[in-house]
Amino acid sequence: MGAWRFWWDSTRRFYKNWGSYVALIFSTNLVISYLAIPFFNWVLEMLLKWQRVSYVSYTNIGSIIIHQPLAALGMVAILLAIIILVYWQFAFLLLGIMNIFRGRPQTVRAVLRSTVTSLTGTSPSTFLFFIGYFIVILPFGSFIFTTPLLNKAKIPAFIVSYLMENPWMTLGLGCFYLLAGYLGIRLISLLPLMIVDRLPWKTAVTRSWQQTRHHLWRYLWTMIVTLFMIFLIVTTIYTLIYVAQLQFDKTSFAIAAATVNLFIMEAITEIIICYTTAIFMMLIIVCYRQDFTLLRQQPQYFNEAPRLRKLTRASVAIGLLLATSLLVAVNLVYLNGLVITKPIMISHRGVDNGNGVQNTIPALIKTSKEHPDYVEMDIQVTKDHQFVVMHDPTLKALAGVKKKPSQLTLKQLEKITVRENGYQAKIPSFDAYLKAAHKHHQKLLVEIKTSSAYTAADTKRFIDRYGATLLAHHDQVHTLSFKVMRDLKRLDQKQFVSYILPYNLTFPHTVANGYTMEVTTLNDQFVDKADRNHKTVYAWDIDNTDQMDQMMFMGVTGVVTDNLTEMQQEVKSNTDHPSYAKLLLTFMNELSLTIATSNPHYFKVAVTASA
């Protein structure tokens, strides 16, 4: 059977029993999103509070293992519990959809028992193999199968950007994705063989490898066609809603139309998510059974009386109606009084769309004319323990010098010319950069970068030399070093210090005034909790209008950007000329198929701009 025939037959199967499929998938996602994930977040927060761990990041994971072993063991236990839950969710959906395939001979309770049995019967070696499979394959295969739990597995954008800057690393990353995709297709029958047939993982791997031999391109093409059709369906629906809202915006009932359209979008998105999950589960089942004609083989008897079918569909419709209505009610609360958040604009490394060499005075002066609220820049200690303005750990990229800033004196560094974006300039001292910023009435967000040469005395030297000046000119400081942040606040409590977090695992509780968060894992829950704790949130790096819109609707305090002028124009457009159609368009970006159940906060931020 061809790829197009698979899509058509699977869609027909979904349509015929849509009540059963939506009830199964939607209820499972609700349990995961609103019970399991909040529970794990609460347990993690209580664990860290009990063990007095202020934050979790790659910068302190070693310290946690050494000094708070109970916290480390607890986090490992939570991770294992999450992996078990992912395994259970996949098993429950697989067995549940297979049960619908067969005509629902089993009750939901019986399917749950089968799922538990498959878990309890799993050998330690099989479970260890699944952990490896989970880490390597599932996060990269999320375009096929995704859950609210798998959506937590994300690679921060700055890591991907860093890898993409090096040709060899880019090649390695590409090869890794290709290998993960190849293994994902060759092992597409693996989990059903382990869950349904309860085969040991070695036997399951061998069987799946044999089953997919000579079928790689067929399965890949089927996936591509299915994804294309889902994309086409979603795009068509969203386009119709957007075009309709453009017309409604010209009327006096634009706000009412926007609210109704949000309701429609949310309801349709939930159904599309259930549809997508069901279709790809069907693909896995037919690959596992090696029989694409299964989709045309209707069960002789479907164990669902007409009254039960009506009851199931009515329950699903009422559930979707209530869930969506609750979200719309949240919209109305925010539509009746709040305005969109206008974030602080921060120029990353003192440049605007490559208008000079990063962290140099000529670029600072040129960028200051664009009137950013702050210019973010980086300082490091030199060999003679002075402060130089430099981001990279070495001089190779900008100056072609195979030295670290800490290996040269300040005078030696000031003689070096750096080149970027077709410009060139001398490396400035922090004193010179600070003086130029104050001369042009430009406030700074100073990032203190540490190295093996950096000591606690350097932090004290920084405060003694610059603390009063920074306070007088309302400059701010942030750093990736928890120790430096803590020492800065201890030495000068009035100093504004933000702690840089590259990953959002759990909300930190520190003495910092705020957090500079990498955008990949930043969400509105983090922003809301920061607001309740009177902490600021700066998002980095925000370099396109879609991200800018999302951050504005999310309510972040400020954004760090390389494209200052473009982002300023986007902010002005959103605040001076708000459009309900544009708000819907932004909300459409949030309602992607990687979100298995939408978060009610998305409604809040999407409509705040309308007030």
What would your notes on this structure say?
There is one protein chain. This protein has 24 helices and 11 strands. Helix 4 (69-101) crosses helix 5. With 611 residues, it is α/β, with parallel strands linked by helices. Strands 1-2-6-7-8-9-10-11 form an 8-stranded parallel β-barrel, surrounded by 6 helices. A two-stranded antiparallel sheet has the order 4-5. The longest helix has 36 residues, at 254-289.
Give a brief rundown of this model.
This protein is of the alpha/beta class and 611 residues long.
Give the overall form: globular
Number of helical regions: 24
Distance between the termini: 53 Å
Point out poorly predicted stretches: 334-339, 593-611
How do the helices and strands line up, and which of them pair or pack?
Elements: H1 3-16, H2 18-50, H3 61-67, H4 69-101, H5 108-120, H6 124-136, H7 157-165, H8 167-186, H9 190-195, H10 201-211, H11 216-248, H12 254-289, H13 306-335, E1 344-347, H14 361-368, E2 374-381, E3 387-389, H15 396-399, H16 410-414, E4 417-420, E5 423-426, H17 430-439, E6 444-448, H18 456-472, E7 476-479, H19 482-491, E8 497-501, E9 514-518, H20 524-532, E10 536-540, H21 545-554, E11 558-561, H22 564-576, H23 580-590, H24 600-608
Parallel strand pairs: 1-2, 1-11, 2-6, 6-7, 7-8, 8-9, 9-10, 10-11
Antiparallel strand pairs: 2-3, 4-5
Helix pairs in contact: 1-11, 1-12, 2-4, 2-12, 2-13, 3-4, 4-5, 4-12, 11-12, 11-23, 12-13, 12-23, 13-24, 14-17, 18-19, 21-22, 21-24, 23-24
